[in-house]
Design a protein that fits this description.
The complex is a heterodimer of chains A (139) and B (132). Helix content of chain A is 35%, strand content 32%. Chain A is α+β, with helices and mostly antiparallel strands. Chain A has a single domain (7-136), classed as 2-Layer Sandwich (Heat Shock Protein 90), CATH 3.30.565. By secondary structure, chain B is an alpha/beta fold. In chain B, a hairpin with a 2-residue loop joins strand 1 and strand 2. The chains are: A alpha+beta (139), B alpha/beta (132). Chain A binds chain B through residues 16-17, 19-20, 23-24, 27, 37-38, 41-42, 44-45, 48-49, 52, 96, 103-104, 106-107, 109-111, 113-114, and chain B through 19, 21-23, 52-57, 60, 82, 84-85, 87-88, 91-94.
Amino acid sequence: MSAGDDRRDVVAIEASEDIIRARRSGRDIARSLDFSLADQTRLATAISEIARNALHYGGGGRCEILGHRAGVQREITIIISDAGPGIPDVAQAMIPGFSTGHSLGMGIPGARKLMDRLDIESRVGRTMVVMTMVRRFTT
Amino acid sequence: MRIPILRLGNILLTSLPPDITDEHAERLQSDILERLDQTAVVGVILDITALDVVDSYMARILAETAQMTRLMGSEVVITGMNPLVAVTLIEMGRELTGVTTALTLEQGVASLKHQIAARDGDPPEDPVDECG
């Protein structure tokens, strides 16, 4: 594949099957970019966590997966958004163990540990979580 | 789709399918509890060989099922965890605390027998059992 060979997929998150669809798509794109099996598992798990939040708290949303290859660098960006009530305290939501409901509080801090970066932008009617994983392949 | 729960002597055995949805996992949990109530079961094996993702939700379902089963007087062993799943759970800080695990189904059955014997206060009668 040539440099700048990008891949993109969008999965609507409307039911719990869609969580599986989103994480499978993330894994497929990670595999196509030669990410290791361990990284594929981390990515799929992180997508599962955040997509579930979008479904349960946001009333559904969408998951966009972007794979980018540029020279030795491979990057995957996941953008999960919903139009729900928003996260009242984003800083608190990043703390392990904090939760507004049913032990889903592990989701954000857990996903953050698995990814290289996780940012949240949230207000009433719009929550967006952006996660990235970047790897370099020197050989 | 209902996930089958098999009975092997006094042990219940169920294998979680790949890509199990939240609803199916929850139904499996209640089905197991129902079967415990109906049958003279002393142990449950949850085989997760097919799962290539265990997120915090599934981890909670597994841990809860184990706790509930124990509360009902049976022992639980989770078998076949994919090593990458184990690594991911640890990295997330979501260990399956309080849950007995075994690498294979065979070791899981052996471990269950040991747990049951220990709980009932019987010394393991046959040390050259399949657990080796």
